[in-house]
Write a structure and sequence with these properties.
79 residues; mainly alpha; 434 Repressor (Amino-terminal Domain); 7 helices
Length: 79
């Protein structure tokens, strides 16, 4: 199972994740093929209580986008 599918499952389904992050179900479905856009990764991380992290969603480029995560090794908690 990929990270996006794990997030969908943790949130109780595609429509629930969509509602939690303010995106349409169709758009999230498209991310299965194209990857999760940077601007939605933190929302997914929050919606899953950090069970799916930005690192999980963007394994190949997270360190370029969020270099602060490389120094801590863990996702930052946000309020």
């Amino acid at each position: 199972m990929n990270s996006l599918d794990k997030a969908i499952q943790l949130c109780g389904g595609l429509s629930n994740l969509a509602e939690k992050i303010g995106a349409s179900s169709a758009r999230i479905g498209n991310w299965r093929v194209r990857g999760v856009p940077v601007e939605h990764c933190l929302a997914i991380e929050r919606a899953t209580a950090c069970k799916v992290t930005r690192k999980d969603l963007r394994p190949y480029d997270w360190q370029n986008i969020w270099p602060e995560l490389a120094t801590t090794g863990e996702p930052h908690e946000h309020s």
